[in-house]
Design brief:
mainly alpha, two-stranded antiparallel ribbon, about 75% helix, about 190 residues
Length: about 190
């Protein structure tokens, strides 16, 4: 079993980490991990997609230099090649999107299992351990509530402490996101009145 201060700090760290993940968004973290995965592993489909995209851009530039009236055969051949490259690009993009979605769902699920699993494990393992004791005269009517589910009377249980930390962290994250949100520019009509 952990000491009271260590347990209180551990629960606080878990709740801060959870609030940060909620603030950033599990999807954003999963997308960043996907980009990192593609860069580090050199995903074949991602590389093929980039190659096809650059080939299509080059072919379109070249196609704009050829007159469809004066050099129809050359223009038609380039147009057929562009159409085939575009179809292949769409196919590879679709396959890559399916792979990305599966990866992001898996990462999202693993992150949630880790966060909620660690939170539940800490609560279950330490449900009888008090985080700290409070003076009986301060909270007498609700003293029993603070010790739920099984901590000694007169103490704050891990579950109640985790709930309190969670609420404070979520409020702090919401306040931080409101502060960091870019200001909306005023319309000229609002300035004149």
């Amino acid at each position: 079993m952990a000491t009271f201060a260590t347990l209180a700090l551990l629960v606080l760290i878990i709740e801060v980490f959870s609030a940060i993940l909620d603030g950033i968004g599990y999807g954003t973290v999963a997308a960043a991990l996907w980009d990192t995965y593609c860069r580090t592993t050199g995903n074949r489909k991602a590389v093929e997609r980039l190659d096809l995209k650059s080939a299509i851009i080059l072919l379109r530039r070249e196609l704009h230099t050829v007159s469809s009236v004066d050099e129809f055969a050359k223009w038609a051949k380039m147009r057929r090649r562009l159409d085939s490259l575009s179809a292949k690009f769409e196919r590879v993009s679709s396959d890559l999107a399916i792979e990305r979605t599966a990866f992001e769902l898996y990462v999202n699920m693993v992150l949630r299992v880790i966060v909620y699993g660690v939170r539940a494990a800490v609560n279950m393992y330490n449900y009888r351990v008090p985080v700290f004791y409070v003076p009986a005269s301060w909270f007498y009517p609700v003293l029993w509530f603070l010790s739920l589910p099984a901590a000694p009377m007169g103490s704050v249980s891990v579950t109640v402490w985790a709930f309190a930390c969670n609420r404070v962290c979520k409020r702090a994250a919401a306040t931080f996101s409101r502060i960091m949100r870019p200001a909306m520019p005023l319309e000229p009509s609002a300035l004149s009145s």
